[in-house]
Amino acid sequence: MSLPYRTPTALTSALLLLLATSTAHAAAATYAVDPAHTYPSFEADHFGGLSTWRGKFDRTSGKVILDKAVGAGSVDITVDATSVDFGLDKMNETARSKELFDVAQYPTATYRGQLTGFVNGVPTRVDGSLTLHGVTRPLELTIKSFKCIPHPLYKRELCGADAYATFKRDAFGMDSGKDYGFSMDVTLRIQVEALIEDGSAGKVALAAPTH
Q1: Which of 200, 53, 186 is nearest to 132 (CA)?
Q2: What are the tens digits of pLDDT across the range 162-190?
Q3: CB-side exposure of 118: number of CA atoms within 13 Å?
Q4: Does domain 28-196 have CATH number 3.40.20.10?
């Protein structure tokens, strides 16, 4: 005798939903920022358009959490402000002084935000906030490029991105040169690479949830 067909119970449906949700969350992975291939750089005005000063920071750390399956992730970056480098010793001394970054009082800058605007598993921007010179303000980064590949040596997933944003430095209390006509506009560019933290060879973040 055949048993009558029964529709899934509410409990069964809930269990299936829980299983699907937990599997999707398993796709999230943490990537450690590679300090040897991550150099935030910036461009700032000199004398109201006379020339453009360019510099970078030599020491950066942090992590990126990425879930390609659900289109989510986060960024947590710390920049060593004492490592500012204009390629000119005298300018570096000025940049570290109270005239600009005041690294004795504010030795680090941080950027924290959420990866958003995913297209085919790839984020296109970061909605976050920048803490600089002791001031925290919202700052959205636009991601120009984002790519993940197997690292040829470590055999783990390596992701890299190029992102940029613009902001007013006087909004962070850094208004040196303003009285001389310097523009307060700063262009920030972040070149970053990060390696998945799990030491297993072949480790990658799942492109889609498994079933």
Answers
A1: 186
A2: 999 999 999 999 999 999 999 999 999 99
A3: 15
A4: no
Question: How does pLDDT run across 15-44, given as a tens digit for each residue?
Answer: 444 444 444 445 689 999 999 999 999 999
Q: Are 185 and 172 in contact (CB under 8 A)?
A: no
Domain ranges in the chain? Answer: 28-196
Q: Are 123 and 117 in contact (CB under 8 A)?
A: yes
Provide the b/e sequence for 37-53 (b: ≥16 CB within 10 Å): ebbbebebbeeeeeeeb
pTM: 0.82
Contact 92, 133 (CB under 8 A): no
* Interior angle at CA 104, CA 99 and CA 105, nearest 5: 85
Nearest CA-CA partner of 111 in 70, 73, 67, 63: 63
CA distances from 134 to 56, 110, 127, 172, 199 (A): 19, 10, 20, 8, 36
Q: Which two tokens stand for residue 99?
A: 């005239």
